[in-house]
Amino acid sequence: MPTTLATIKEDLENRIGSEIMLVAQTGRKRQTERRGILTETYPSVFVVDLDPNENSFERVSYSYSDILTKTVEIEFLSEAV
Questions:
Q1: Highest mean pLDDT among 1-5, 18-22, 55-59
Q2: What value does the mean pLDDT take over residues 45-73?
Q3: pLDDT tens per residue across span 8-33
Q4: Which residues does 59 contact at the CB level (< 8 Å), separation at least 6?
Q5: pLDDT of residue 21
Q6: What would the DSSP string read from start to end of 17-71?
Q7: Which PANTHER family does this chain map to (predicted)?
Q8: Rounded Cα–Cα distance for residues 66 and 23 (Å)
């Protein structure tokens, strides 16, 4: 993943509509895995629509700094196949 906020934002803007897997750090030695579709990008956050069968809520948003600090890791599933 790129190392500046501007390049992270640009990379995500180019992949709107892609299916992704998010791994978010939720505390000491805890992680949450979520699967969804990258739907929107804003100046400081991006939005992912989650699979309603796997999650209790529909959408989640994270900031680009979460990716920079590795609080959230993203894997694009279309490239993994």
A1: 18-22
A2: 89
A3: 999 999 999 999 999 999 888 899 89
A4: 39, 47, 48, 49, 50
A5: 93
A6: T-EEEEEEEEETTEEEEEEEEEEEE-SSEEEEEEPTTT-SSSEEEEEHHHHHTTS
A7: PROTEIN VEG
A8: 11
Contact in structure between 8 and 67 (CB atoms under 8 Å): yes
Mean pLDDT of the chain: 88
Q: Which amino acid is at 45?
A: V
Measured CA to CA, the distance from residue 63 to residue 81 in angstroms comes to 27
Measured in whole angstroms, the distance separating CA 62 from the mean position of its chain's CA atoms is 7
Q: What letters, b where the CB count within 10 A reaches 16 and e where it falls short, cover 56-80?
A: eeeebebbbebbbeeebebeeeeee
Structure tokens at 18: 């892609």
